[in-house]
């Protein structure tokens, strides 16, 4: 009888809506139907779905995925070899990028134009310069750091306060979405992840989706960032990381 659309969604970690969409555009049409007309997926369908998700993770648009999978000259082994090569290259590039952007968000804690009184008034007990030396030593040669420094140098106390207020308000809305049961790959969570990316872009430096994905991974890899987000709600950091990834795939 094969597998139902709900079962396949559970296996693959995607939504039923995604599987329906793949069927509608002819990317993954189930091999059979039940007596009631419901979609039933066989093992070959699951193999094709796995290849689709690999290519999507690599950033390929759906129309390109369809071309690759339906190429009569290719076979499953060729797809695996190609995906392995692409993944290996991507891992190397992401590792290099991660070295350049890790902890870059901490630069926002540096209130360069603020007096000591203003710094603590805006940031409370967190010293905005406590990470300044570490950040400069690690990322002082990157363009993201240079751009962040250029912008921060012009910010006033009011600018930093507005930035903090925006971040806090976004955090409240994200927590509300989590408490409402919003999945990380849901539209509401992905929209909030996009707001997060644009906040970085607006206040600090250009943040393309690949860089944003690296930041998301850092939020769960670095216990300081995990503690910061999870203080708002347990599981926040991992949920945000997954939403950032889903948003990047959506925009690919």
Describe this structure in words.
This protein has a three-stranded antiparallel β-sheet with strand order 1-3-2. The relative contact order is 0.09. Residues 103-112 and 122-136 have low confidence and may be disordered. It is an all-alpha fold. The protein is globular. Helix 3 (43-57) crosses helix 4 and helix 10 packs across helix 13 (236-251). The protein has helices at residues 5-12, 16-24, 43-57, 62-69, 76-101, 116-123, 132-139, 143-152, 157-179, 187-203, 209-221, 223-230, 236-251, and strands at 3-4, 32-33, 39-41. The longest helix has 26 residues, at 76-101. The protein has 13 helices and three strands; from the N terminus they run E-H-H-E-E-H-H-H-H-H-H-H-H-H-H-H. Keywords: Activator, DNA-binding, Transcription, Transcription regulation. InterPro entries: DNA-bd_dom_put_sf (IPR009061), MerR-type_HTH_dom (IPR000551), MerR_fam (IPR047057), TipA-like_antibiotic-bd (IPR036244), TipAS_dom (IPR012925). This is MerR family transcriptional regulator. Residues 1-71 form the HTH merR-type domain.
Features of the shown structure:
mainly alpha, MerR_fam, 3-stranded antiparallel β-sheet, 3 strands, 252 residues, DNA-binding
Rg from alpha-carbon coordinates: 22 Å
Shape: globular
Average pLDDT confidence is 78
Strand content: under 5%
The topology string of helices and strands comes to: EHHEEHHHHHHHHHHH
How many separate helices?
A: 13
Helix content: 55-70%
Terminal Cα span = 35 Å
Which blocks of ≥5 consecutive residues have pLDDT under 50?
A: 103-112, 122-136
Structural class: mainly alpha
Counted beta strands: 3
Q: In what order do the strands lie side by side in the largest sheet?
A: 1-3-2
Largest sheet: 3 strands, antiparallel
